[in-house]
Amino acid sequence: MKLLRLLPLLVVPALFAAEPVAPVIPSREVQIKTALLAAAPQWRDGAMVYGYDEKGELVVLRPGTNPLICLADDPAAKGFSAACYHKDLEPFMARGRALRKEGKNAKQVFDLREAEVKAGKLPMPTGPSTLAVYYASEENYDRVTGEVKGALRYVIYIPFATSESTGLPLKPEIPGGPWIMDPGTHRAHIMLTPTM
């Protein structure tokens, strides 16, 4: 009998503990401010900015007037990561977002985009195009004020380039040094990662 009286006390807290917590979505101003951390200062004023609405859906927060597109941090993901890239990369980036939204894993996204690029269905830039990512740990990001202390990583896409065609190593030879990742594929790129 005592167990039956205690049952609601045990079950009700367990139900609340299992309920998922909705991510805190920063204000429009904070999202724009922090997305632009990945942009070079000369491009910030005119960059287009994607961010998240109150439902967590990706939307355009600010239209752009220059070739840069910035993407605010995903409030549902751990840590902080904002990115800015040249508009020529938008078909590639948009396709990746769409495939991930469908539930595709990283390998499936890579394989599908590789096949689509080779079939001429997905355009890639004809010359080098840059992506910059400003990233930080969860502890170094305040979603309310937009204060973030992180580091900047550069990625320069050079589709189908190889170590042989660029002279770049396949791994960093020195801390923070350039190297080529995914050589010979649609996603071949030069990595420049800071040492922290």
Chain-wise SSE layout:
Elements lengths: L1 H17 L9 H8 L5 H4 L3 E5 L5 E5 L5 E4 L8 E7 L3 H12 L4 H13 L10 E8 L14 E7 L5 H4 L12 E3 L7 E4 L4
Parallel strand pairs: 1-3
Antiparallel strand pairs: 1-2, 3-4, 4-5, 5-6, 6-8, 7-8
Question: How many strand units?
Answer: 8
Distance between the termini: 60 Å
The structural domain count equals 1
What structural class do helix, strand and pairing data support? alpha+beta
Percentage of β-strand residues: 15-25%
Radius of gyration: 21 Å
So what's the overall shape? globular
Q: Which assembly state applies to the chains in this document?
A: single chain
Order of helices and strands: HHHEEEEHHEEHEE
Which bin fits the share of residues in helices? Answer: 25-40%
Question: Biggest sheet, strands in spatial order?
Answer: 2-1-3-4-5-6-8-7
